Amino acid sequence: MQTDTLIIGGGLSGLALADHLAGAGAEFLLVEAQDRLGGRILTRAVGDGRFDLGPAWFWPGQPRMAALARRFNIAVFDQYSSGDLMYQDQTGAVQRGRGYASMQGSYRLAGGMGSIIDALSGGLDHHRIVTNASVEKVAHAQGGITAHVQHKGTAVTVQARRVVLAIPPRVAAETVTFEPALAPAQLQSLWNVPTWMAGQAKILAVYDTPHWRNAGLSGDAMSRRGPMVEIHDASPMAGGPYALFGFIGVPADARTLHADKILQVARDQLVALFGPEMANPRDLILQDWATVPEIARAADRRPAGHHPAYGLPASIRALADRGIHFASTESAPVFGGFLEGALEAAEYMAAILSGANVTSVRAR
Ligand SMILES: Cc1cc2nc3c(=O)[nH]c(=O)nc-3n(C[C@H](O)[C@H](O)[C@H](O)COP(=O)(O)OP(=O)(O)OC[C@H]3O[C@@H](n4cnc5c(N)ncnc54)[C@H](O)[C@@H]3O)c2cc1C
Q: What is the three-state SS of 236-300?
């Protein structure tokens, strides 16, 4: 196979870059290791509702997400936050009305974040997108790039003038071989970049009736007992089924060993916080991102305590001279980590590939 720009990774940044290149009439091929597009964006249908198991929000001051929603006519709505909050202390005791609605003012998308993946990928020539295709090696020589790809168990090579790794830098460091090899310091720099939220897990509890809303509760809860430590309403923009989701506070290693037990205790926790009607969710889903090797590596199992300063170090940006570029959200200097950062990274990369000098903008 042959192309001009090979995009590795079909998450938001890879797809947004493909969209830019398609708009400019440029030739590209996008390869995605998993059997679906979206990466950390994962929206699951339950009945007539679509529920986010990855990112759910964007925020005021994030213009690219707002513009994309407008472009594709995807309705934006406010995170539900009417009513009292709940608080659970370490002993399990519950208090009503204590705390603050930490996600009040956040925006959600009708149909979930998967709507932007569907819209972006739906607008691209599907011959240029290959799923189940994992890049294992990127060889660089005078004439360009040769990528070695495993596609459904078959080894395939792709020749390209240049390659964009729209995958988390740490995933690149651990799973892609470069030839000639990257300098040890470059490899270490890539590996040092934590993948935002990769070690997190969410539980989604879906109900036909929004019992918490009916009781005057917002669905927001903070818990010092767990297993869910922060809970929010995750219902669709209108109609049901309705849902709550919670971030799990149990460390990744323990989660993997005790997934069934965690779901059982989470159900009990929902009853303790929101009432006995919560005992029988229509669906109870655990999405553990730490178990997805294309996104989370062993070092990501210990979540970053704070939001890291993102943007690629200069030694990595220098690889552009070899036709090797990086463009996941972690490479975005302003909104790195967020969905907005994935769009920022794609926008800068499209400008770089078109020959614009944006090096100073990308400097950390
Ligand atoms: C639980 C959770 C909640 C979050 N909440 C929010 C939120 O509310 N708001 C927000 O702004 N952000 C949030 N984020 C962060 C947000 O999801 C990311 O910023 C964004 O999705 C990153 O997109 P990306 O395309 O850069 O990377 P990814 O989505 O990680 O995409 C990378 C893609 O590359 C593929 N890949 C990896 N290796 C290879 C290979 N060798 N060959 C081919 N393909 C490969 C992967 O399978 C993946 O599809 C959250 C993340 C998580 C996990």
A: CCCCCCEEEEEEECCCHHHHHHCHHHHHHHHHHHHHHHHCHHHHCCCEEEEEEHHHCCCCCCHHH
